[in-house]
Design a protein that fits this description.
525 residues; mainly alpha; 2 domains; 72% helix
Length: 525
């Protein structure tokens, strides 16, 4: 196979795609009259559209590149076996225990659930964690997508930041003018582009290699590390039990704490419709994850027959590089542009959904609690929401400049960045929904304990200089710490006590955490 350059037709496809997205935003902007319509689409969206949109809220350009990259470099354990095996369990837990709780309340922000049981302080603490985490997540998405775009197009690396600005600007614009309906409709379009791009890659490699049998996996590749069923050694990158636990805990926790997902469920009519939407999202995730894993298998066979010709690029260390390389060098002209549009679709859908959900949380949990807000007209509230979209869009573009220090491949980066505080935040919801004696004091202290555990596990190598701990331990451990600490410290009698007494209890409650962290760090020195 002879590689080629990114051509004029490819660029034209990208430009047309961006114009279509802006056109959809302009179309729906004419229907925006209230913030209710802007944030939850009048609560009348089709469950299929909502379900695909929930999938798009999870699935990013990093997932799109990371899934085949993980398969190429490490094998199918995490992305195929673990991700697919937990879906029936997750559907039962989320669909029948969590979705009814969310849908029976007249809420717009997921964090409104917290105030009713644990008070405004817990609600605003959870909201603030979400906003900060989401901004960091969007900055990573934009940074990564711009790097991938530079590599795919083959332009000067100095174009990284201009490309990040252009992608961020287009996404911010159509989100700003169109609201949640624009976000959800474009996410359905973009999800279709993702699946189409993956199928095109499989079909073309099948033709180029002479049949499915030429790339279909038949054995465990020699460069793949062993993945034992279970091990107590935290330095082993992946065990099957660890991967399954991480996938299950992550799937359950994200649907609650991720305002992007909750907001899409709230656009449906009632709990059964929301449950159908969640089922559609699970099916879509399963299909796309399996398809992208097959893309990884096909790419692995393709590059064994056609070495990449890039100095220093090998299967053992650079799995994430092979899919973008194939897109830029081996796809026919025009189709390459379509694939790049698929990559940008994944980035834009996450950015659009992230911006919309972030301003929803900020508006509902902070701005609307101010007395002056209720005196504003619907048009003034809608205008404020659009200004917030613009502000956060610019913040994400600026934040993407500082991203890039996290170690690991894209799967590891995902678990060490935006997934890092999922379980500490979920602990707040678990206590609010299921633990009758839970208090705001116990919930907040539990979140501090859980977040500390997550950070230590994720950045153990950077903090101590010792070998890193597997990313598969982050979610299960921080989940267990969150529930244990939250339930334990809720037993402390803080209800109705003066602030100075509660402050003293907080200091005492945090002393064991400080002592444990000090002991761990000294022991690793």
């Amino acid at each position: 196979m002879v590689p080629r350059d990114f051509g004029l037709l490819d660029t034209a496809v990208l430009v047309i795609y961006a114009a279509v997205l802006l056109g959809i935003g302009i179309y729906y902007s004419r229907r925006q009259q209230t913030t209710e319509e802007y944030f939850v689409g009048g609560r009348g969206m089709n469950p299929i559209v909502a379900g695909i949109s929930v999938f798009a809220a999870y699935f990013s350009v990093i997932s799109y590149i990371a899934t085949p990259g993980e398969y190429i470099q490490y094998g199918p354990g995490v992305m195929v076996f673990a991700s697919l095996s937990i879906m029936p369990i997750a559907y039962v837990i989320v669909g029948w225990l969590i979705v009814p709780v969310i849908m029976r309340l007249p809420i717009t922000s997921a964090y409104e659930l917290l105030e009713a049981r644990l008070g405004r302080s817990v609600r605003q603490a959870g909201s603030l964690i979400y906003i900060v985490t989401r901004l960091g997540w969007m900055a990573v998405i934009l940074y990564t997508s711009a790097i991938i775009l530079v590599r795919v197009i083959g332009c000067d690396p100095r174009w990284h930041y201009p490309l990040a600005i252009m992608v961020g600007a287009v996404t911010t614009t159509y989100t700003l003018i169109g609201g949640i309906r624009t976000v959800m409709v474009t996410e359905v379009l973009q999800s279709g582009m993702l699946v189409l791009g993956a199928f095109l890659t499989i079909i073309l490699i099948t033709v180029q290699l002479g049949g499915v049998g030429a790339w279909w996996p038949h054995h465990w590749e020699p460069h793949w590390p062993t993945q034992p069923v279970f091990s107590w050694d935290p330095h082993i990158r992946v065990t099957l039990v660890g991967a399954v636990l991480t996938a299950l805990v992550g799937q359950i926790c994200r649907i609650v704490v991720d305002q992007s997902a909750v907001q899409r469920l709230l656009t449906t009519r009632d709990a059964p419709a929301a449950r159908r939407a969640y089922l559609v999202s699970m099916i879509t995730i399963a299909v796309v994850s399996l398809t992208l894993s097959l893309v990884g298998a096909a790419l692995l066979a393709f590059y064994r027959r056609n070495p990449p010709g890039v100095p220093g690029l090998d299967f053992n260390h650079h799995g994430d590089a092979f899919f973008p390389l194939y897109i830029s060098h081996y796809l026919p002209t025009g189709i390459s542009g379509l694939m790049v549009a698929s990559l940008m679709a994944a980035a834009m859908s996450c950015l659009a959904g992230g911006i919309n959900s972030t301003i929803t949380v900020l508006t509902k949990d902070f701005i609307e609690t101010a007395p002056s807000h209720h005196r504003r007209s619907d048009k003034a509230k809608l205008r404020l929401s659009r200004w917030l979209v613009l502000f956060f869009g610019v913040a994400v573009i600026v934040g993407s400049v500082g991203v890039g220090a996290v170690r690991g491949n894209l799967v590891e980066v995902a678990n060490k960045t935006w997934n890092l505080l999922v379980c500490p935040t979920f602990g707040l919801f678990f206590l609010a929904i299921f633990i009758r004696y839970a208090t705001s004091f116990g919930a907040l202290i539990g979140a501090v304990y859980s977040a500390t555990a997550a950070v230590l596990l994720a950045y153990w190598d950077m903090i101590t200089g010792r070998p890193g701990i597997s990313f598969t331990w982050i979610m299960p451990v921080s989940f267990a710490v969150s529930l244990a600490a939250g339930c334990l410290f809720s037993l402390v009698p803080t209800r109705g006590r003066p602030a100075r007494v509660v402050g003293a209890y907080a200091v005492l409650a945090l002393l064991p955490l400080a002592a444990a962290v000090t002991w761990l760090l000294r022991g690793s020195a």
